[in-house]
Amino acid sequence: xxxxxxxxxxxxxxxxxxxxxxxxxxxxxxxxxxxxxxxxxxxxxxxxxxxxxxxxxxxxxxxxxxxxxxxxxxxxxxxxxxxxxxxxxxxxxxxxxxxxxxxxxxxxxxxxxxxxxxxxxxxxxxxxxxxxxxxxxxxxxxxxxxxxxxxxxxxxxxxxxxxxxxxxxxxxxxxxxxxxxxxxxxxxxxxxxxxxxxxxxxxxxxxxxxxxxxxxxxxxxxxxxxxxxxxxxxxxxxxxxxxxxxxxxxxxxxxxxxxxxxxxxxxxxxxxxxxxxxxxxxxx
Amino acid sequence: xxxxxxxxxxxxxxxxxxxxxxxxxxxxxxxxxxxxxxxxxxxxxxxxxxxxxxxxxxxxxxxxxxxxxxxxxxxxxxxxxxxxxxxxxxxxxxxxxxxxxxxxxxxxxxxxxxxxxxxxxxxxxxx
Lengths: 284, 127
What we know:
Chain A is of the alpha+beta class and 284 residues long. Chain A has nine helices and eleven strands. In chain A, the strands form four sheets. In chain A, strands 9-2-11-10 form a four-stranded mixed β-sheet.
């Protein structure tokens, strides 16, 4: 048979039609098998974590919040610096925090890990340093910590979403599992609230609290507003150790303790002009 | 075709060399480790043994995601029992023998989970 242009075009056309029919056929086959997979999943899978529906027995395992956990729209803290006038008043508070969270005490300042620490007025409030200041306030020690900003720049900087603002209560948290140690968040934070583990922190822990993990080399850490204590219905460790000088509560509940304190006292916040909306207020 | 014998010899030597690690280790596979199951009377694990053997890593992954990112710290298993999702506390409360329970099998399977870099291994053991 002599090959002709007409015959060639016929064959090519038929082949193209045949190839075009392949994907729909495959799709139909795949969806057919997927349907049976779905049915199997519904019976045995457990990776889904649906909301808790009112107790009782359920064949599906679920995860839920504890009944005792404290709830808020945005947690906030009011520190009454008048009641914390000396370094001796502040030390036990820092100690309580660092013990609760296995924060190591590393002598080398370059490797220091800080969750809650003492700062001079000039460093804590650089925009509010008049030339002639009330001497009492100027030389008062100020407790500083992560401000759990309503508009946190660290969260925007994190490439892995290891640090995130928790939708349920506004706490800016760290997921140490995801942190890759790039330290963008440290550069983004205007308050220096984040510390990097340049070395394994474990040798620098005198005692460990089993209720909270330690960290490993290469992750960034910071204050977590005691999220693990709030889940158990407890106040943060620093609030508990402050004997009334630090108040904690929901910023958006007009009857909360913090709102009442904010209503009655004049308060300042750190670097407010940057627009990060810090949630830690200071009564001076 | 004069080099036929040489080529066949070479191929045989090459084949033996490639297979030598397998031949050398034939029949000497390490026995599967026997795990020491904790003797906590009456306590039942979060899930059944078959599930835990096959899926404990998925379970722990779900736990860490739920606790850290969703603030949900309680796990209700299919029997309706509630557990606090904590590796260092809930799991190790029963499996207090990490060295004989976790490590043996992980060493055998040559996996190095980095859980223990941060999560505190049972202090009862070190005391």
